[in-house]
Amino acid sequence: MAAVAVIGYDLNKKENCTIHHTDDYDIQKNIVLRRGCDFTIGLQLSREFNFQSDFLEVSLARGSKAQLNDGSKFLVSFNTGGTVGDYSWKGGMKHTGECKVDVVLSIPNDCPIGFYRMYITTSAGTITTQESVVILFNPWSKDDDVYMESEAEREEYVLNNNGMIFRGNIKRPSPMHWNYAQFEESCLDAALLMLDGKFLDSDARRNPIKVSRTLAEMININDRDNGVLSGKWLSQGDDPAVEYGDGVPPTLWTGTEAILSQYMWSKFQPVKYAQCWVFAGALTTVLRTLGIPSRPVTNYDSAHDTEANRTIDFYYDMNGEKLYDQSADSIWNFHVWVDAWMSRPDLRGNFGGWQALDATPQEISKHSNTMVAGPAPVRAVKDGQEVSYDAKFIIAEVNADIIYHVQQEDMSFAVAGSDTTQVGSLIATKAVGKFSMADITEEYKYPEGSLQERITAQTGPVGKPRTVRFSINPTEDLEHGKDVEITVTCKPNTFDNYTVGLLATFQPVTYIGGVGKTIKKLKEIREIEKKEEVKVIFSLSPEEYEPYLSDENKLQCTLFATVKETKQLWMGKVTQEFVDPKIQCELPPGFESAKIGSPFTVKLSFTNPLPVPLTGLKWVVEGSGLMKPQVIKDPRTIKPGQEAEQEVELKATRYTRGHMLVARCYSKQLGEITGATLINTE
């Protein structure tokens, strides 16, 4: 009898991918599967398979030098001795018709993730399937290290390719829509190549701790490892058109697909440019692509503690000028990193769940000498426990105290004030199942001022008792063309009379705390009698501030006060942001949902709020499954109060849970504005 041969096969892609929750992947040449699940292969044989005498073997191999003994190759054999599997691989076979069998393979829960070639061998020879097999983590499997119990959370943190990343400031969190595009072929290929670029072995590929940290390292280029994104933060006065001229301004990215596509076709050249939310958006994509639940997290008034002492120290002279040579500490209006979900068997204690992970290059990690932070258990951050990886730095980001120091006549420094509640006073992410903000501050820290929070911060009361209390009340919403006002309230703690000197310094500022030239300094001296409450208003006119604003549209006011009778010093600082218009997305009249393959047009528009014309407009539009990322240069001049319009043609190419059209528009005068709309398909 002739040896049995395989003359055809069927990977049952539709059925297998549905079971494995991978049917959203827009990939034709491969099949995407998750570990901890069975998958079925249909085989057409040259004759009936004899279970007593015939031999059949299915093997998967990762890399060109795959070996059974290092976990890069697996095989399951069906022969007269029964079924034999390597590394907990199991299999089964059954007849399904004339000369047809189904082979069922069970992927172990600890299978190394990656890209595998599949070989089917009988006594007649070996065939290689045209499709390769991609194996991912499985948050649906209880035995996987990334298992997540809630179906709603799996839908949000693994399967949702439309997201929101929050920027702005604590008084006005500003949502920015982001297309993760984790099911696009370029994103999956890039994520797997990042692991190859770091030469991750099989043991590391089994472990979401190692995989997630590796991806975070590869998202930035600071470790000279052919990373993805080049970061750039401008100083006040820099011209964005010049500084970002050889790349894309960070504010113009609308999603990850364009970033990773450019990275792939440029053969791993750095993609320019990124700031924290871009690093976080890209990292969220590759984590979700590989099956690790993840979410971008925004920490408002985020501390960058360069001295690792859980305090942010600012030094000033008696004129209110900051002394930069004394400390490199800073407070960012906001900072975005990523939470990744996984167990932590490497740590003693209950540290599984969300892990903070940061790809933005800030400080070198002592664990690896690379520019990365995490994964650090959020539970450990809340309790102030300095466990692996880099929890110490993240604890300070959310719970450091701010200390203001003023230089005296003898050149020594006195503490002029402190703020124990500003840092990390709001930590936010997208809500599960809806496009709104979820406040997750309590996951990261205890209530401000509580005993547990003070223990975590490891600091106590700072400075001497105050004879006069000061508070700042800024204008709620800054609007272009209107005055900016800062109100300082002074109230004595005793029935004595006091002479209070106040100095207000206005400066433009970036979101990471970089200040520009001083716009104006204002001084006031007030006599306060017997617990009288006095309000002092400092204001700037549009003619004074508009010439100084950068494309970030932020102003900072630093306030310095002295009490003549008691020598009390006080300092405070407030950062405000102008309210920008939103891009309106207008669908065709009567439009309800997009039909697959049928084009339609969307009109984008906004009104110029400035007293000056807008020039050099650049529109960036994308929608996963609707259109590839597109940049449109607009030569028109948009006068004050005039509407800017741009039409784009879209076409849904596949059905999904909802296509998010994301738009940005940039001009030198206004900076970046955003807009988005959700489009359903039928």
Give the gist of this structure.
Helix content is 15%, strand content 40%. The protein is mainly beta and 682 residues long. The chain has 4 domains: 6-136, Immunoglobulin-like; 151-456, Alpha-Beta Complex (Coagulation Factor XIII, Chain A, domain 2); 468-577, Immunoglobulin-like, CATH 2.60.40; 584-679, Sandwich (Immunoglobulin-like), CATH 2.60.40.10.
Question: Secondary-structure map with pairings?
Answer:
Layout: E1 6-10, H1 13-19, E2 30-34, E3 38-45, E4 56-61, E5 73-79, E6 82-85, E7 90-97, E8 100-106, E9 114-122, E10 125-128, E11 132-136, H2 151-159, E12 162-169, E13 172-179, H3 185-197, H4 202-205, H5 208-219, E14 229-231, H6 240-243, H7 257-265, E15 271-274, H8 276-289, E16 294-304, E17 311-316, E18 330-342, E19 353-358, E20 373-377, H9 378-383, H10 391-399, E21 401-407, E22 413-419, E23 426-430, E24 437-439, H11 441-444, H12 451-457, E25 468-474, E26 484-492, E27 498-508, E28 520-528, E29 534-540, H13 542-545, E30 554-563, E31 568-577, E32 584-586, E33 599-607, E34 617-623, E35 627-634, E36 643-651, E37 659-667, E38 671-679
Parallel strand pairs: 2-11, 14-15, 17-21
Antiparallel strand pairs: 1-3, 3-8, 4-5, 4-9, 5-6, 7-8, 9-10, 9-11, 12-13, 16-18, 16-23, 18-19, 19-20, 21-22, 23-24, 25-26, 26-29, 27-28, 27-30, 30-31, 32-33, 33-36, 34-35, 34-37, 37-38
Helix pairs in contact: 3-7, 3-8, 5-8
